[in-house]
Amino acid sequence: MSDHLIPPQILHVDDDPEVLGNVSEFLTQEDIPNWGRPDVTSIESFGDALPLLEAHRFDLMILDVRLGGHGEADPRPGEEEGVKTLEQIKSRRFLPVIFWTGLPGQVGDLASPLVHVLEKSAGLDTLLGSVRELFETGLPGANRGLRRLIEDEQRRYMWEFVADHWNELQGNGDPMALAYLLVRRLGRSLSGPGIQRLAAELGSEGGEGPAADTIHAAEMYIVPPLEGTAPGVADVYREGGAGEAGEWWLVVTPSCDLEWNKAEHVVLAVCRPLEEDDRMRAWRETQSSGSRGRVEGLLGQKTGGQEDRNLFLPAAPTLPDLVVDFQQVRSVTREELDGMERMASLASPFAEAAVNRFTRYFGRVGTDNLDVGEIMARLSGPEPEAATGSTG
Known about the structure:
Distance between the termini: 84 Å
Number of strands: 12
Structural class: alpha/beta
Number of domains: 3
Helix content: 40-55%
Strand content: 15-25%
Shape: elongated
Number of helices: 14
Strand order of the largest sheet: 6-12-7-8-9-11-10
Oligomer: single chain
């Protein structure tokens, strides 16, 4: 995003007023690429900062480790405070965090791509570099874009539907109806035009999006699967290994059987890495137009007869390029399935399409081939003379 209407919003919490002043004065004079100069809100007490996290939208937080506890009635050992502080932040908002502290060793194990740990003695230039690096991840921009998308849909729904139909909604006698209608509309908006809008906003930083008549591969998946939901048809599992290692499986047992524990066993179809597919290997070796066409047929989900044996699952975060083989299936107990790692769920309508493909492949009926040559010869012969009626 090249034109943010609101500058970067940074919350800094430290019990040393001099540190707060120095950081604020330094950062507010420096540009964040594509964002401009930040606004820095400085707070001496984490207890005062918590309400701000609820009421305001910060893009990043800078935090000392030892802030004298979260209240006099809650004294905590210093080695635990950083952990508990981060948990408090996570329970309220998503935002990247920089621990800017004289005690980096006490929170070193919390360091991650989105949680930086810096020693104050490293200097303000190092702090600025960390701030810029976190904004360059694109996540603060994605966070803003998603909030705008949800609020815009909510705004339009309230003004353009609820306000115009309030008497009908109020007289309906069902106070839950409005909540269900709004949530369903949000879900549909986020899964359709909302994706295109958010992708377009992020695309200004992350490159070109898909063509108008295509989708991005990530749109096929829910990653990770929704917490608290039972395993379902077209869930992707990994058994053993880490990263892309291990064995990959696609659930083909109907979701209703899994949801209500009607299935004693769960049927899985094997998923092989795309590079192990014979069509892919042949194309790598020959680069011929014929081998390329077979690969394109696989990637394009060509259907019909033996073509339905395989289903291509494109790579997405945490998933490699995979080829499902519906001819190689395996039955496992629910306990065995729960011992595997549930990596993703195919989203609608891709889950339904996978089930239909599996059903077509196993439900197909073979017939003897017609003598097409004979029929073509007959059709290629002289056209039959037009029938003439009797004038009687």
